[in-house]
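Review this fold:
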Amino acid sequence: MKKNNVLKNENRIDYGVILPVFLLCLIGLASLYVALNHSFNLVYSDNPLRGVMTQGLWYVVGIIAVAVIMQIKSKWLWRLTPIIYGAGLIVMGLLVKFYDQATEALTGSRNWFKFGSFSVQPAELMKIAMILMLALVVTQHNSKHKERSLKTDGLLIAKMLAVTIPVIALVLLQQDFGTMLVFLAIFMGIFLMSGISWKIVIPVIIAFVLLGAGVIYLALSDTGRELLQQIGVQPHQFDRIDLWRDPFLDPQGQIARSIMAIGSGGMFGKGFNVSDVYVPVRESDMIFSIIGENFGFIGSTFVILLYFILIYRMIRVCFDTNNEFYAYIATGIIMMILFHVFENIGANIGLLPLTGIPLPFISQGGSALLSNMIGIGLILSMRYQAEASPKTLRG
């Protein structure tokens, strides 16, 4: 009997999700060692293993978080979600006033708390809180309104915006445009999966496309830039747009140097721990350039393939679960990780503007890593808990 229970529990653990995450973490540690070994980072340049060990400790914390979250039943998560979301808003609100001024002077963003040598970015964990809250709101709405109409769909959109707008507003106050885009991607993913009529979805998509095109047009014209500056857009954000259009306007800049590093790797790369092309901030936003230079096109493709496998396995979980609350959580996590991968690699090769988005499970940074690991824990819990019906959540 015990043997059967063990086998049953093992079948509930999704190794198709665990394996690519494990390999990405190993690649992250190796890439971080190379980045710190060839960097001008005064903290780690003399001892790159110190930075690797610090990141390794965050991996351990993330693994513990995954193990704990897998034990949380959906009904507990359901009850905790409003508390988690509310606490996240309070912390984000405190950050508007008590941000780390040294980091703001360096990056232009007010998105970090610092306590001595320890720093944390609350917006990273707020991504999970918003995913949970949107999933709860949509599940509650759909269970209450079985008969869908344009009126009920409009009400659902209003509820989703009520969850999202306060988060977006707080992120904008922190002057973190890249993170704001992640929250919008999460919102759009759950919005598209929520069952809202295509009579609403299609106009909304068209409106977003037109809005995006309009913002790009304004950002590319002198008159438009003056208007955007009046509503709070910072000059360094326009610089990123200019470098996106022509990365070699600044040959020593991050994008130009990243393109040169990746290009110099060729098909098979230069080998491990080689860094002939200096790339600023290589340990975080630009870590994909390490992979391209050391392991070439083959190594870069392997990393992208791992992300594809991970996303595919998470999509399988999303469609296999018969718990509506879990399905929306999975959708939000998929959109969060997918957008990070798309934006980070796109920026490293010059296809997209640089927005400071880290590469999941690989870039240095405890807050982002912990957020991603919590997301993986939630995905794994969906199969591990194997709960049958969202009806149990409403009891």
Q: What stands out?
A: The mean pLDDT is 86. Residues 13 and 384 are 6 Å apart (CA to CA). The radius of gyration is 22 Å. The first helix runs from residue 2 to 11.
